[in-house]
Queue: 2 jobs
Job 1
Amino acid sequence: MDKKFTMHIDVDSFLPATDEEKAYMVQMRPSSTFFRDGMKRLLKNKVATVSMIIILIITLSSLIIPAFWPYSYDNMLGVKPGVPVDASYSNLAPFEYGETEQAMIHDGVKVFPHIFGTDASGRDYFIRVVYGTRISLAVGFFASIIVLIIGMTVGSIAGYCGGKVDLFIMRIVDLIYSLPDMLMVILLATVLKQTLGPALEHTSLAKIGSNIISLFIVFGVLYWVSMSRLIRGQILSLREQEYVLASRAAGAKGGWIIRKHLLPNCISVVIISTALQIPSAIFTESYLSFLGLGVNAPMPSLGSLASDALNGLSSYPYRLVIPAVVISLIVLSLNLFGDGLRDAFDPKLRT
Amino acid sequence: MNSKTLFYILKRIGLALLTIWVVITVTFFVMHAVPGGPFMSEKAISETAQKALEEKYGLDKPLLEQYGTYLKDIVTRFDFGPSLKQRGRNVIDIIADGMKTSVKLGVIAAGIAGIVGIVLGAWAALRRNKLIDKIIMVLTTAFVSMPSFIMGSLLLVLFAITWMILPANGAASGGLVLPIITLSLYPMAYITRLTRSSMLDVLGQDYIRTAKAKGVSGGKIIFGHALKNSLIPVITYFGPMLAYIVTGSLVVEKIFAVPGIGRAFVKSITDRDYPMVMGTTIVLAVLIVVMNLVSDILYKVVDPRINFD
């Protein structure tokens, strides 16, 4: 008999598994998800972990400290209604007290110290730095969210639709991309400062201040382009995948495919570039504040604090150094944390 | 140069021209959104100046016609009109005046950044993971994370106030030293990192190994093969570097009181000297766009393998 045509079936293969064999198949450890994997890699990265802790400490303290601090950022300590301005409160060195405060200490009353002294208007400088940090962080965060939303919408439409729509959108993106961004930012901020202020009066937005809103508008108009380029590139490569074809064959509509298949698959790239966008937004805000186009007085931001400190630089250099150190620390740790995120979560970029 | 490269260059020039036109248009219309328009001063300016403005820009004419005149004056005569705050002076004269100092500042800063950056980057790459590489990387990371106004202010505090080695005023003799250092540190750090990573990439290539195998000396490999090829990505940075130096000079000139275009620009913003803001924005934008164009074309010519589409 020719062996070729016989089927040799090993009957033993079909016996139920013995306990010993079953034990062999037991999962040695729970399977890991993409997220958990990335977190593990991130926590192994010492530089990124330290940066993350620094960011958390700075953020939390900027949120919590103003709640219990006895002074507020716009309270001029020397100014009391009905009394002439008490100049002894202006330009206090760290841990010095104003005249009335000294009298109170003399009487045995405990007075909370001015850790960083006071500024030229007699405002507690420590709380101004804390508050400025909060403003700078908030501006950076919300500006990045705006960039993310606009960039993601435009980028995914361009990438998914392709063809003429893509060509049209990408030409606009090219154009905005080649505009000198900082100059345009300055121009828009200058003009919006003049036009938005009166328009916003008596609305709930007036509290935030026209300058911050114009900053957000500027970001929304100019800075979404690199995000949309990135997402378009991702979507272009993702939409050729088989599972998209399968979904379309099953009758899925465009919006569904973008939301359920394409965006979740480029989410790590999106999160990473958003994280890296925050320091650059903080950078821009402080730059504009420094040029006098940032937050409205008396609200402080780290940039405006540094800018104000320039006037009394030779006598009070620490007033410049403090916000300078804080801003550099924030930007540096956000950048390092973003790099760590990229290394941990973007397998394609890992080297 | 083949026809494809030529086509790319033409396309790139087209985009640059379009960008310049968009900048002028945006600047004009955005500025006209200011209540009262850019040529209306809230303080009374001299009657003759007001009249000259009205005559020049035909402020009673429709907006589109004013735009046409503005555009035509720029293209044909580089004329941005008179300044509102500096009486009797044209915007273009103020710009040309400031440019003398600013160009000197920018060119020297760019030169230092380029030379020092390439040397440090190559050095770090050749001593990879050694102590000197680590020191260079830590320092450049710190420099890249520091906004220019903070760097400038800190240098000012240290060198001009605490140690009193260098003058704080940019107009004094030797006053440009600190502004130049401030401006060059960030691009220098960036070029160092760029050169290092591209040098490391090149050193891992096959042709370097071949050169080593056939007995080419170390110096010849580094200067003849590795460095030349690893400088290609650095060329692309020249455009962005100029953009950085231009925007950085705004704050640096403010800090050190350098009598340049940047300080004039910042002052015109606080003074609301709108024709000056418009003129300076356009001139600086054209400068940046042209430099970006040059660096893109240079990149393409130096390395024809690169495909931009």
Note: Chain A has a mean pLDDT of 82.
Job 2
Amino acid sequence: MSRAGWVALAAALLGFPLVGGEYYINLASQIFIAAIFAASLNLLVGYGGLPSLGHASWLGLAAYISAWMSLKLGLAHWATAPLALLATTLVGCAFGWVSLRATGLGFLMLTLALSQVLWGTAYRWVSVTDGDNGLRGLTRPTPFGISLDDAASFYYFALAITAVAVWLMAVFVASPFGVALRGTRDQARRMSALGHDVWLIRWITFVYAAFWGAVSGLLFVYYNKYIHPASLSITASAEGLLAVIAGGSATLAGPIVGAVIVMILKNYVSGFIERWNMLLGFVFVFIVIFMPEGVVPGVRRLFGRGMRAWRSRR
Amino acid sequence: MAFTRRRFIQAAGLGASALGFPAIVRGQSGPIRVGLMTVKTGPLASGGIDMERALVQYLKERNYTMGGRKVDLFVGDSGGVPAQARTKIQELVERDRIHVMIGPLDTASALAADDYIRQAQLLTLSVAAAEDMTQRKPNPWFTRGTSTSSQSAQPLADYCAKTLKYKRMATIADDIAYGHEMCAGFQRVFEDAGGKIVQKLFSPLTVPDYGTYIAQLKTNVDGIFLGFAGSNGFRFFRQFNEYGLRGKIAVVGGMTAFDEAVLRNMGDEALGIVTSCWYSAEIENAINKRFVANFRVDWGYDPGFYAAATYVEAAVLEATLQALKGDIEDKPAFMKTVRAIKVDTARGPVSFDRYGNVVGSVYIRKVERKDGRLVNRVIHTYPNVSQFWTYKPEEFLKNPVYSRDWPPAKNLES
Amino acid sequence: MQYWIIQTLNSLALGGLLFLLAAGFSLIFGLMRIANLTHGSLYMLGAYVGISVLKYVPNLWLAAIIGGLVMALFGGLVERLILRPLAGNALGQVLVTLGISFIVADLCLIVWGGDPIPVPTPPALQQPILVGGVAFPTYRLVVLAIAVATALALYLLMDRTRIGAMIRAGVDDMQMARAVGIPVSRLFTAVFCLGAALAGAGGIIGGPIMSAYPGLDADMLPLALIVVMLGGVGSLLGAFVGSFLIGAIYTFGTALLPDLAYVILFLPMIVVIAFRPTGLFGRQSV
């Protein structure tokens, strides 16, 4: 994108709360959370070629740990946030070790099974998770003494975190490590012949993705002030995967656009169309068939073709 | 822009729900905007769709007018996912600018929205049964005209102990808060009346097969209490029957286990089963007779728990609006009035305790065949049942909330 | 003692039901490398279609055959029209099947409503029979028998027929199968139809036990995944052993360790895959 494009995007994002109503500001905050979630999943799916169907584990786990530490241990946000991120990332280390026993669809099934174990634990371990009631009575943090309780301040908070998250994920992908990661996706055997430890590269990526999934989980629990086992369900993981694929995996903007599409379908369009579940299904079948590389590359391709046709006609 | 408007309104002492609504046109003008928070997709859709049908019927019968003002209805569908319910409630408040919400359907959604209801000062007439929202953590904007989880189970326990003379019973329910709370209330009252709960089973929500639980059931009990909701109870009972236990162990059911919505797909195996609920399509009063007759004309089946829930809440809303002459904008006055009101509804007379929970009749019902279909005939009425049963509220509230572990089960036999 | 007899029979009957569910999933996964996430939906749709068929043809077995054929047709269409254009895009195929499952679930809600609907047990099988002095539902033993018969039929199909040989060749080495002139394209459609038919018929045969209700799809799909991952993809023997293993683990596990009821099905699968990525009987890593 050109510099003017970036400036325009930044201005639009910064200015949005001044013009949008409260409902739309909140919707945008939720989109930011979904965008971090989808972008972190994309590290695995798009760049690593590792389709995870258990990424909701990280969102849910971080949210639960943070909520539990503040409710049951009475810790403040400055303590719960790093501890929750640390604990979730450590679990990510372990789950990564197990899941990466397989690749491809086997990896998908293992991540699914492990996330189901967390889901079942959240339902059943009532003394810690309060089961089906979920954990509630939570608060939002007050960074630098600023209350995040109104829609606009939370929006800016989420925007800032999202910007940092996307930037750090972009750095990761562009680094030599990111290049090696793509190598393991495309030419795993050659990479190992070249002396790369393919398994280790994948494992580090898994843990890094889990970390950013946990960041989205913290934002999620700050936003909702509530966490329920449903956030650990297959559906939650699947929605993230849909966002990645819909927007376009292995691109930076793709998952973010995908998150926008999913959130708008789920939260906005569903207010007008009764059969929004079916619509969601059709949209994904359509995208996968007609834009198999995702909306972002798909539109870019169509746009490029149109431009060429226009130029050649001239 | 948003900041200044917000500050202005807060300074004017009005709630956040007024955002986007120019202060000048507030006051008694325009229609009353009613939001229905329900579930129309996914596994809970059956009850959620009934909620909408009954509410629309009520509004049609009143020509969409309550307390002298027109009523606009806005419907939100959460798909049964709590975080989604919260988002949808925000949408109803911030985009559709509703004055009052009926719903949500399920406990988890009500809990997920608890702090938002407080923050937005959203007038709520709930269907969900979560106990603590009208007990240890009462929400000042929350009123419930249906019942808590255990409110119908406690009279049933009394009936089992005193009228049916059961001494030993087992319970089984879904392993979620609703099931825990129902079984706990049942156990407390049953054991206080001298009975013993000798077995408590909880099965996960997504259980492929109940065979393994049925095999564990004790057969040397006087009866078993089923605390299921929706399709799980239906499946459990069919399998229970399949194992030839139907004639051997008496079955009693909580308020949703043999609901009209489930009964219409059942057969003779359900005949004679005793359940308790704050409603039955068979209640003999003029309001209910008209409700049931019209509902049957429109949809071809008897209304059950969820349909009655919104029909009753709508009656509570209308009575309150009449008392206030349509002034729903004064929220504290609304809450004060609704909690002091006494109104005749399809479920019988209804009033509220100081925690915002209903006090009303609970019916002991028996499944019978009438005009070729199965119905829940009322065989006994417990009038003016409170969420605290006959316990003193202050003492009741000193105990922990009903759960898997409280009250402790002292009489279990292994 | 009686208790153990009943629980053993329970675990066998559940295993039989799981095999009917998982056999088709395993075939499709093994041959086509598609994790078919519509499998639960096919099972549910089969049950609902069976309920509608039963209104006109009051015979469960006939309804199962008709429902199976309808699902075979549906599966064939899905394979030809949707999955075929996505050949080579494994992740796209997984997602598209997920999208279809959303559509099917909503469709069932529209057509059959949200209330649970029973599938009546055939009258002759309604009375429980006495096994070693304890009452056990006759129908469940019949389901077990059907599962064993189906397993046998599938074994003969795979082992003794030309098409079976082709399928086995495809599962073992797809490129080689293509090279020796096996019509892989038609084979894919045939296998997908067969898998869908098995799932659909399974939905009806399981109906008297499970009933049909919204959410049945989401309840069944993970079970199929677990069985197949545990047993090994593309292996009929693996699906068979996996089904009964999971049936036993579930039945005895929830009875003996009720605290683990929610997670007990997933733990064995994780352990097995972590130490043997091919599953118990699979030849290829998944």
Note: The longest strand of chain C covers residues 129-131.
